[in-house]
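cache lookup: miss for this entity combination. No prior model stored, computing from scratch. Input as submitted by user K.M.:
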Amino acid sequence: MPCGGNWRSQIGRSVIVLYADSEVSYDGRAVSRAGRAWRLIIIKPDGTLLIHTDQGYQPMNWQPPGSRISVTETSDGKLIIYSTRQRPREVIRVVVYGIEWACWGMPSEGAFRLTGTHEDVKEWIVRNIQRIIPGGRVISVEYEIPGHGIADILAEDASGRKIVIEVKRQCADLHAVSQLRRYADALNAGGILVAPCFTSGARRLAREYGFQLVTLDPSDLSPGTAGAN
Amino acid sequence: MPCGGNWRSQIGRSVIVLYADSEVSYDGRAVSRAGRAWRLIIIKPDGTLLIHTDQGYQPMNWQPPGSRISVTETSDGKLIIYSTRQRPREVIRVVVYGIEWACWGMPSEGAFRLTGTHEDVKEWIVRNIQRIIPGGRVISVEYEIPGHGIADILAEDASGRKIVIEVKRQCADLHAVSQLRRYADALNAGGILVAPCFTSGARRLAREYGFQLVTLDPSDLSPGTAGAN
DNA sequence: CGTGCCAGGTGCCTT
DNA sequence: AAGGCACTTGGCACG
């Protein structure tokens, strides 16, 4: 059974899960200190370190892939787990007072496919530009505007006027409108914001800036509908 | 030893960790399908579900706190784990073909303190506004501009001209400049961007918009220095 | 509950 | 490596 005391031999080879009584300190872009408590510690072979509590999606502390981990033992028998990352320089130090159980395994992602992403929506629009700009055409995708960022789609309408299209897969907010403005201003172009929904503020601001809103839900990517708004 | 076959009795009471041969499907804001493979499954009492592979900070699939979990058994002995979330409606379905080990425990966050945050930087600036705007004063913090968002700090310089200060704890980018512009435009005010560093694009754009840059590192919050730029 | 915005954001891709 | 940006972003605070 892959649970036992020799988990240290699995470092770099398996995903190790420890249930440990521990203190955690983090020093890097920010600083954190966590007093002694039982926590879930996950060590992945790619250098990822995750320290989870009883609640929440996010770990209490972590270290990303590529970090270097080491485990040492103090003279009085306590374990100390170090995880170090360069650029930015960040260190996690876990003092382990006790381990109730330690298990490991070699999980994998397996075949994995994710759909309904921003990329999918963008591709749909390129193929169905007529539904967004009747009589228009796509000039470029991921169009870089030097010093101003990268526009999702650059198109032109029937009259030849340039139009920047900014695509969001979730409700568009003020940030999305500001982003679109940055592109449209730089190109002296019109702007269309495509999203499944819009916050009230986004609607106001888009109106103020003269941008058009188009409602398009990622789940409606079929030959379906795109309702102008 | 808290590892064994009766982990299902711990649902809602402990954090459960399964090492399982499984298929995972996710349907919600996006859609994902993951073929059969060994994966690490974590079930927290707050409804959080995390499915981890051998690499990366992020789980392959997940469900946030507040989700409802249930485990059923098919006629041929396979387990199926359902996790459902409303608003947005999202469902994860895990078909479990086998479990190599199942362990649990009741971790906690314990005493935890994080410093060096955005809030810390903002407070430092309010206390040391003279270092940012010599002769100026703070008018308001978290100043809401209706329909345009919330400015970090609204101040005025020695001549009484309004200045919006946008604070970043990491390198400021185009997004930060756009955000500042949204505020400054709405108030017809000047703008100062405070950050530990700036991307090349952010420098260009800030110059174009007439914003001032001030370099301030979160780790130098002592009575230290704030270098205008 | 929606709106807005930070996060030690992370991850992906392109120059 | 730096820059730009999406993410099933998650999480928080406020009206």
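stored under new cache key. Chain B touches chain A through 66 residues (CB under 8 Å).
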